[in-house]
Design a protein that fits this description.
The chain contains 18 helices and two strands. With about 350 residues, it is mainly α. Keywords: Lyase, Magnesium, Metal-binding.
Amino acid sequence: MAALDSPRQQLLSSLQGRSLHIPDLRVIFQHWPQAVSPELDGLKQDLPAKMAMLTSSSKKLARMQKAEFALFSACWWPTAALERGKILTCLCMWLFIWDDEIDAEVGRLSGDLKASQRFRDETIGYVRYCLGLGNEACNPPENQIIAFFKVIGDAALEHCTLEQREIIMKEMEFFLDTSEIEQRRRLHEGLPSVEEYISCRMGTSAVGVTSAFNEFAYGTSPLPMHVMEDTDMRALWDETNIIVWAVNDLLSLKKEIQQQTVDSLIPLLYHKSGSLDLSVALVVEAIEKAVRNFDRLAAALMDRYGQDDGVVERLRCFIEASQFNCTGNLAWSLRTGRYGVCQESIAGGVTVHLPQLG
């Protein structure tokens, strides 16, 4: 824990007991599709057994149940067939519990950088092996969390091309690399700048990883690499990323304060501006801008490739999948017990009361 007089601890103290009003974010996405998979009940069926493969800790299992991973998958990928939806549920569950291992306060490795680095190194090696990208044989890891990735890797090997698996690997490496940067900063008493935080958050969000599974979710053949590597397509991935993590940073603040962490956008903007209302307004404005940018980029991509009959439908599906990721993330974030908002509707906005810690 940071020293009582550190900038980090002072910021945490100044936020305790405060309230913030978040406007109705659904208005921003009202022209985008939103749905919940009709397979939701099926996604829930074998989830307890899958959770037991990840951990035997009753505390961790309780946190996982609270997160409602089947609902996450059903909101993010509502068009996915049941078996693919189950793999996507495993993916999001794995990403969350992996991150929780090194997250502040709740994580087993949160204060041990050396052990965390071993955990990251073993993870990256095994993920590469499971995706069929490693040259060497790899024994199953003793760590349950790392070993669980084989469920996801086997599905990727069966259904994804080499190029798709390489994209997944690249995004996974970005996620793991930025998790190290985030942990090093958190163990330091100083606060990152807003710019430093955003640069790191683009990786720790893991949205690049989830975006890399969008074609898998739809069951479509992959877009040609020249389309996937188009600068507008890469920018569209970035805007999706910003929308998702900015919404999460708004709605998860109560959880962050409960866990005594201030490494998220609202606290850092508040530290800079001194106004909680202004901080919320700036994040909402950033989400609105990202949605406008996404729409512009999507239109440009459809104009560029719309005459190519072999590409246009797959491109439309990928754009729609990214929109579902954003609207589904908002729907899940409002309802999940993980963030403590627990509201199915945000009509008129929602007021979040930050806890007063003892």
